[in-house]
Design a protein that fits this description.
homodimer; 208 residues; four-stranded mixed sheet; 9 strands
Chain lengths: 208, 208
């Protein structure tokens, strides 16, 4: 068994990436990295499930001790990816999903060049707006802000290797899994196999 | 709907690529290109199902009229891929499977740079030998020849983009399909989408 891969999922706020990740974990065999944050837990959020909730002091200590593979500050809160879980899982051959922002994704790719970067989008902006409105919990102002943010995120889409459109949820989930399966079939990731099989063929032909 | 893709399947003789292709067609939505050949039909083979059986004169005429996208001669027989079906299918947005030899695969890639080249292998040579023996129809001499041929084919594996190991048939079939799905998600194949969504975002931000 080789090392596991990091699968970095980013996407428009409102594209449904949280649901995609949830289904992916349910349906296929992935480990999920839980981020650390200094923001306060929201109603119903559980420490270690949605996030590891940390004080600013705890978070800074994590940074100091190299305990995060990437971190960033949004508004006044810190967010980061704990190193230990990720490194342990990939060492044991498991594929790990990280749902993170564009900036974090770029940091991950710089450190783990074989990380797979996937961007989840809606098929158009009308759909994104409709989904945000359908939540019924957000004001027009907030919706506008989220779409303005999507515009910034769209500028970064070119840095992703794969773009998956979340139109039909199940298809989107399967497409993400397909990307991981196909990455494992890439010739570049079959170096060991190629060496071995050529050797076996040589032995077969030479040896009998 | 964009253009369809060509999916070129090659592999070791005995790796089971014929069965993989058959299952792929049954399970997913692909068109299958039927090759033309001058070799005589074998027991049970039907014209237009396994091959289009042609006389040498007919085959040469196909070549002369640019009716084949690739052709090659093996031993004393000609084999080729009829152009009309392939071009019609991809123009109508369907993905077409071509089960062809290494040399033909290279010819296809030169003409259709977005063709997806997939090589089907067994996990090792012992397995390949065991499968050939299990057929029970082939002499040790023939088996030896086929494995010697596999050694030549292995030299060409580096020219393929994907290598799929046919260990569990169903998994192999799904892996090939995953490759096609993931290719459609590649950023390079989302150029139109990227242009459109950025334009929509600009309009949204600028327009309201």
């Amino acid at each position: 068994m080789g090392k596991g891969r990091l699968i970095v999922i980013s996407g428009f706020s409102g594209a449904g990436k949280g649901t995609v990740v949830k289904k992916l974990i349910e349906k296929y065999d992935y480990s999920l990295s839980i981020s650390a944050t200094t923001r306060a837990p929201r109603e119903g959020e559980v420490d270690g499930r949605e996030y590891y909730f940390k004080t600013v002091e705890e978070f800074k200590s994590l940074i100091d001790y190299n305990g995060l593979i990437e971190w960033a500050q949004y508004v006044e809160n810190y967010y980061g990816t704990p190193r230990k879980f990720v490194e342990q899982e990939i060492a044991e051959g498991r594929n790990v999903i990280l749902e993170i922002e564009v900036q974090g994704a770029m940091n991950i790719k710089a450190q783990y060049p074989d990380a797979i970067l996937i961007f989840i989008a809606t098929k158009d902006i009308e759909t994104l707006e409709a989904r945000l409105k359908a939540r019924g919990t957000e004001s027009d102002e907030v919706i506008r802000k989220r779409i303005t943010r999507a515009a910034e995120e769209a500028d970064s889409m070119d840095s992703y290797e794969y773009i998956v459109i979340n139109d039909v949820l199940e298809e989107c989930v399967d497409a993400v899994h397909s990307i991981v399966v196909s990455e494992e079939c890439k010739k570049e990731n079959k170096t060991r196999f190629l060496i071995d099989i050529k050797k076996e063929l040589e032995d077969y032909i030479g040896g009998r």
